[in-house]
Design goal:
With 136 residues, the protein is an alpha+beta fold. It has a domain at 57-134. 16% of the residues lie in helices and 38% in strands. The strands form two sheets. Strands 1, 2, 5, 8 and 9 form a five-stranded antiparallel beta sheet that branches. A four-stranded antiparallel beta sheet has the order 4-3-6-7. The protein is rod-shaped. The model has no long low-confidence stretch (mean pLDDT 85).
Length: 136
């Protein structure tokens, strides 16, 4: 009898590998692509100004882009508060890149700070400010 060599085992190994590939489960079907989502509109910054407990209309509120040295850069967006003491701004970027300025000519208030620090409700003397980001 002739001993089995490498050449005689090779067809058996190839046959076993071929049979193993046929015995595998089929892959999961490829899912259908999702329809494109509509782009979200930018969040809205709402600034409310109160003097005492009453809303203050006519306060100038300016939203400006902020440079790395925390100074205003570029053109700002001015708004006057309405009868409810509210001014609204659509934000095009993150809140960390803007300055907010508030100016009340009647009572002599002029205030400017980074928007990231001003978010929330806080008081300054008789003034109360509420700055909030709301989804569109």
């Amino acid at each position: 009898m002739k001993p089995m060599g490498r050449t005689s085992l090779l067809p058996w190994i190839l046959a076993l590998v071929f049979a193993a590939t046929l015995a595998q489960k089929p892959e999961a079907p490829i899912p259908r692509p999702r329809p494109p989502e509509e782009p979200l509109s930018p969040p809205v910054l709402e600034v409310r100004v109160f003097f005492g407990e009453t809303p203050t209309p006519g306060i100038l509120v300016v939203l400006q882009p902020m440079a790395p040295n925390r100074m205003p850069s570029g053109k700002g967006i001015p708004r006057l508060t309405d009868k409810d003491g509210t001014a609204r701004f659509p934000l095009t970027g993150e809140a960390t890149g803007f300055l907010i300025s508030v100016h009340d000519r009647e009572r002599g208030l002029r205030l400017q700070m980074p928007l990231a620090f001003a978010l929330g409700t806080w008081s300054l003397g008789p003034y109360r400010f509420t700055l909030s980001l709301s989804p569109p």
